[in-house]
Inverse folding.
């Protein structure tokens, strides 16, 4: 019985996700669903990436948070449209909440919407928001075993950011283990080793995301 | 309708959780439900804590993982009873799965069962496993905003381990912000600043958990 209910919820989500995707396609807007553990660096990634891209592209952000607007506060100096969705305890965003907030944006004047999902490696991977693609963010300090322990996200994402590279020398993160496991889960996925706080390796990422926007 | 179903599921979980708790009480076994983000250091905490306590107390472990036994492999050298629960994609353990694995242990010869929940700051906080208490683990590298962004766990836990203290100088973690937010969420909770990899601050934790076991 529980499985049936879950399927119904997922089906309803799927239909709404397809509506969102159709609308964004019609408006020629890319939507990136950013997923990571709490504290892997999603907001810092957005701070830096928006700073780098905002003269070239028209950007908006949807911030998914359980109960605060802390992340949105960190981004507001960029002067771009930001909408916060508080999930009130919920562990992920869904396509219905995305659908409800899209009218807040002028979609005719946007290139890309970054969606910062709730910090959680598990649940957000199961819910299609209607995004163009998912972006996985994982940080060195979480350890090298994340691809094998949380494989769904790494299978579903179009690209991976391996963040906090500046801290690798202070940890026991083993790149060989990480890449070996990742290869078993999703061997062909583009991956960028970066430190957003130290601006290391970020140019390849900016080039890649720019090319995704340009070819939309 | 969804809320009603959720309530039924939670009620069923609550009843089973109380059964688990009654059994453990009858057998005089403490059960600690350990909750954190992925990669905050739950398994390292267990490696070190079991090493410190195993001559004094009879310890067992339940490892909750989505699809592997990696964490259990890391603990097996201690020679204590370990049972793995694979959630097959599920984002948290529940009291039914705990109830099913308890017969694997000789409860008459145990002092404490550590339960390593699925790495997730959100969902595990909502599900009572029948534990004696929840233990929150949060790491410096996740940032100082976790208590305010994920308040439920910090309200529900009996104690907090603030781990990876050795990395604080390489991050922008602001202790004042962390403690100010935590104070607003749960001002009275015992907290231990530790680095399990560097064995910093761990003695206070070992003393505290020992006193919890001794006074059960």
């Amino acid at each position: 019985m529980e499985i049936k209910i879950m399927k119904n919820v997922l089906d309803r989500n799927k239909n709404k996700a397809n509506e969102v995707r159709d609308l964004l396609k019609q408006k020629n807007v890319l939507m990136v669903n950013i997923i990571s553990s709490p504290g892997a660096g999603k907001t810092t990634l957005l701070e830096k990436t928006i700073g780098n891209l905002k003269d070239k592209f028209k950007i908006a952000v949807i911030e998914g948070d359980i109960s605060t607007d802390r992340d949105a506060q960190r981004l507001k100096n960029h002067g771009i449209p930001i909408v916060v969705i508080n999930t009130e305890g919920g562990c992920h965003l869904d396509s219905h909440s995305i659908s409800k907030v899209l009218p807040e944006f002028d979609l005719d004047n946007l290139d890309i919407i970054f969606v910062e999902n709730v910090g959680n490696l598990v649940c957000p991977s199961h819910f299609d928001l209607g995004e163009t693609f998912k972006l996985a963010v994982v940080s060195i300090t979480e350890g090298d075993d994340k691809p094998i322990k949380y494989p769904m996200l790494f299978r579903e994402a179009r690209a991976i950011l391996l963040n906090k590279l500046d801290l690798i020398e202070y940890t026991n993160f083993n790149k060989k283990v990480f890449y070996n496991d990742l290869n078993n889960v999703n061997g062909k996925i583009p991956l960028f080793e970066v430190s957003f706080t130290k601006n290391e390796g970020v140019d390849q990422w900016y080039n890649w995301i720019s090319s995704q926007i340009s070819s939309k």
